[in-house]
């Protein structure tokens, strides 16, 4: 073959660094975005806090909700487009744009991330033991005990095995048992228990002595835990020679305990800050971005003017480009989020009036077609985003329930769950309704679901069966007593 040069024409789709950054910012939660903006303000000289800016409102065309005449009025943050990227920017330089991670190892992400409280239950237990154990020998034994605790909070090794591991300290099994008693006194209650019975007894021990049903609950856990697990309430009534109400108080006290204290400790509660606020009243709903969550940043105009026409200061010019990208990315994120929320509530306007029972089936494709974007964009912008409604704070993902098959009209699984919850809340406590009776009531409302579907939804909402609810009659009195 003879060497030669050939010219080919072709098309190729390339994602620019700016587009990649905008896509990544769409899926950031409020706290993650706040941390990234704070980091950018510290590292980029061309960015500054925009303390004086306020959210401006502009009237938008009312959106008509489908299948009814509900009007949703939306207010938006209509910021003007920023200056376009300079044409002479060197796109080939990897150091000229930031994809989130630094290009060198001098400032790793671990050094820029604020220290958070440890989520490991064992580390938190040791922190508590350091203040209560003064003897170095006891602290060594406590460390060996804590290391043998699994993620659910249970002690996996026997006392003899722990003593053998500490053979160089001449520790006996009795010494380990004495320290274990101190380890089991830390939070959460039930930590370092050797079995379920001991875990429940430790939690009952920490309750006030005057707690109603405490004595019977202790006796059930010590001697009759198998009968309780088998729900053999008749045998328990015969053993204690008591009535249903008294027995139910003791059983409910046990059911309030945590069988896996370590698992719950490893899942700390998250602070939820709504990104969208829905306010107003029927026929005049307003959808706004939450001003408290909007990053207030802007490009430093003074430094920007000094760089105009200058071919020097390459580092500052690159920082200027990064600053423009970040400001533009935040603006695009807010605009897309608000547009998506507007489309969602134009379909779910009945929810704002009647709650979850009026939740309509909705898919990502429907919203994507409405706002003329891809489904993946809708998925990103609704992930970890929350909205404050008249019925409480919800994740935007919650407004995409699936359609329930077999219904005579459009009915979502979320709506059916809400109806089941309302039926159970309004039932006669002395004669709870079984799943078949609930399914029959739903059938009369035009929702054809099987009994097993009702049972599945009831279990998903952590609602007890009719037999168990019959024993839970004094639950409210129990809470007051405790």
Automatic annotation (TrEMBL):
Domain (RNA polymerase sigma factor 54 core-binding): residue spans on this chain: 126-303
Keyword annotations of the record: DNA-binding, DNA-directed RNA polymerase, Nucleotidyltransferase, Sigma factor, Transcription, Transcription regulation, Transferase
GO biological process: DNA-templated transcription initiation
Entry keyword GTP-binding: no
GO molecular function, one term: DNA binding
Domain RNA polymerase sigma factor 54 DNA-binding: residue ranges: 315-470
Domain of life of the organism encoding this protein: Bacteria
Pfam families linked to this entry: Sigma54_AID (PF00309), Sigma54_CBD (PF04963), Sigma54_DBD (PF04552)
Biased composition (Acidic residues): 48-57
Chain spans, region Disordered: 47-67, 91-114
Record-level GO cellular component terms: DNA-directed RNA polymerase complex
Alphabetized PROSITE patterns for the sequence: SIGMA54_2, SIGMA54_3
Function (record text): Sigma factors are initiation factors that promote the attachment of RNA polymerase to specific initiation sites and are then released.
Protein name stated in the entry: RNA polymerase sigma-54 factor
Organism, as annotated: Stenotrophobium rhamnosiphilum
